[in-house]
Backbone:
């Protein structure tokens, strides 16, 4: 009996070290933040690149260019933070995000512009809420600081998307 208990005590840290994020001391909420922020950021870049090609409005193209620049910067920083904690962020947007992008590929002209602007409002509302939650209640200091750093820029993106949506 004692050998079994000793073996369990020795094995437990090894098993837990294999759980993504656990070795770095990340909570499940912080790990979820990495996943959601990474997939959302990648989707923003891909949709922004698509909008730079397909948009008919110069305002939409300028907005898309800003999204590509800002989200690429944030994505790169998030990947560095995640990797420093032994976490590999997702390599692709979620299936739903890819489906949304594929739907936009079928549109053109003003219809594309309207759809892209509308989606950007929805996407940034979700992203602002995600970053606000991490900034307020994240347990990892680096991730919390990351969320606090980018939250004002994301709030600005939301305002820009709302203005674009009205135009």
Residues:
């Amino acid at each position: 009996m004692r050998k079994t208990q000793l073996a369990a005590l020795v094995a437990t840290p090894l098993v837990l070290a294999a759980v993504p994020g656990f070795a770095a001391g990340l909570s499940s909420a912080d790990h979820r933040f990495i996943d959601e922020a990474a997939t959302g950021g990648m989707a923003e870049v891909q949709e922004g690149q698509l909008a730079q090609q397909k948009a008919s409005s110069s305002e939409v193209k300028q907005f898309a260019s800003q999204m590509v620049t800002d989200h690429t910067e944030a994505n790169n920083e998030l990947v560095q933070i995640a990797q420093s904690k032994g976490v590999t962020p997702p390599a692709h947007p979620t299936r739903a995000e890819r489906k949304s992008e594929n739907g936009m590929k079928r549109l053109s002209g003003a219809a594309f512009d309207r759809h892209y602007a509308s989606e950007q409002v929805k996407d940034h509302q979700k992203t602002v809420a995600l970053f606000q939650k991490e900034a307020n209640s994240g347990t990892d200091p680096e991730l919390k600081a990351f969320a606090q750093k980018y939250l004002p820029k994301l709030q600005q993106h939301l305002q820009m998307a709302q203005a674009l949506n009205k135009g």
Q: What stands out?
A: Residues 24-166 form a domain with the Ferritin fold (CATH 1.20.1260.10). The chain is about 80% helix and 0% strand.
